[in-house]
């Protein structure tokens, strides 16, 4: 496996950096890995490396580049967490989706690409993974504890490719009523699979954090890999 920083032309002008992890074998397919609110930090790079080790070409775009390029924060640090929420408050979601479309195109055109590319996103990236399902032609999408999906269910009719939602039963950022709204709003769509993990909070897959819960994280990870293998190869 090799890693590098690449530069991607933005569809709206300018360019942004992304972390690219390339497997040592012929790539199965591509994954656009979508950052949490803390930026492209060590945790996101490690997730990318782990996907690359099982054969995927993984791209992690710096979605905060218009606000503060290269930001890397620790969610468990109170001051850094506050800054992350500040950045998120300034983040333009529509521009972020356009950057993800550019990332999708970059991976599809990359040498040795199979042409199939999906997305996996966490937290705010989980919301963006949902938008990847509703606003792009990504081949398969995985959302981990995505926020505000209940407020964007009007877009659900545009889902034409398989989507997984991993939901934390005790998510402090997605209320029980919001989770019920999501489940009711998507239950009739055969392309959507919802997994709910009891007894865990937001960020249960964030390795090394106070929220990390090994059993739930490994179960969600196994389900994600099986899903990606089925739909991306």
Automatic annotation (TrEMBL):
Domain Dienelactone hydrolase: 16-232
Pfam families documented for this protein: DLH
Xref: SUPFAM superfamilies: alpha/beta-Hydrolases (SSF53474)
Transmembrane segments: none
Recorded superkingdom: Bacteria
Matching PANTHER family: ALPHA_BETA-HYDROLASES SUPERFAMILY PROTEIN (PTHR46623:SF6), CARBOXYMETHYLENEBUTENOLIDASE-RELATED (PTHR46623)
Protein name as it appears in the record: Carboxymethylenebutenolidase
Organism from which the protein derives: Nostoc cf. commune SO-36
């Amino acid at each position: 496996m090799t890693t590098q920083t690449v530069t991607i032309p933005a569809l709206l002008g300018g360019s942004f950096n992304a972390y690219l992890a390339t497997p040592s074998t012929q790539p199965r397919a591509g994954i656009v890995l979508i950052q949490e609110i803390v930026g492209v930090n060590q945790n996101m790079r490690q997730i990318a490396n782990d996907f690359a080790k099982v054969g995927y070409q993984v791209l992690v775009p710096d979605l905060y580049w218009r606000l503060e390029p290269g930001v890397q924060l620790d969610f468990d640090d109170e001051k850094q967490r506050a800054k992350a929420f500040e950045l998120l408050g300034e983040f333009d979601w529509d521009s972020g989706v356009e950057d993800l479309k550019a990332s999708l195109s970059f991976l599809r055109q990359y040498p040795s690409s199979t042409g199939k590319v999906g997305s996996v996103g966490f937290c705010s990236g989980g919301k963006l993974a949902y938008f990847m399902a509703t606003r792009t032609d990504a081949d398969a999408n995985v959302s981990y504890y995505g926020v505000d999906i209940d407020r964007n269910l009007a877009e659900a009719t545009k889902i034409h490719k398989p989507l997984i939602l991993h939901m934390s039963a005790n998510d402090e950022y997605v209320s029980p009523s919001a989770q019920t709204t999501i489940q009711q709003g998507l239950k009739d769509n055969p392309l959507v699979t919802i997994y709910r993990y009891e007894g865990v909070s937001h960020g249960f897959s964030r390795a090394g954090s106070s929220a990390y819960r090994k059993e739930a994280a490994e179960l969600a990870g196994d389900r994600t890999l099986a899903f990606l293998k089925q739909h991306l190869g």
